[in-house]
Design brief:
Strand content: under 5%
Distance between the termini: 38 Å
Structural class: mainly alpha
Number of domains: 1
Radius of gyration: 22 Å
Number of strands: 0
Shape: elongated
Order of helices and strands: HHH
């Protein structure tokens, strides 16, 4: 099969815009969000906010912690994407340093 009639393969799994990348970012974001919610509902936690009381916090309760957890939930995917891009830049710089040092 020549290049003109070859079928398009689509985006590589981790290229921007791929569904695999979006799904992976969503999973990592869920992994970040889930422990916050789990820790919040664990009871008892003496001195800390739990389902039974506010512990030593007179200004916070389960609902305020839940609201703050929900407030940042939509930001987790963006945090993951920013970190992924920084890691890619670091890897690219590291490869360049290694190639120039070894040449």
């Amino acid at each position: 099969m020549d290049m003109i009639s070859a079928p398009r393969l689509g985006a590589p799994p981790c290229s921007p815009g791929s569904t695999h990348l979006a799904r992976t970012i969503g999973l990592v974001a869920d992994y970040a969000d889930r422990p916050l919610l789990t820790e919040l509902v664990l009871t008892p936690k003496p001195g800390l906010v739990d389902r039974r009381n506010c512990g030593a916090h007179s200004d916070r309760d389960l609902q305020t912690f839940l609201a703050s957890t929900r407030a940042i939930a939509s930001w987790w995917p963006r945090f993951v994407e920013v970190r992924r891009l920084r890691a890619m830049r670091w890897c690219a710089r590291s490869r360049y340093r290694c190639m120039t040092a070894c040449a």
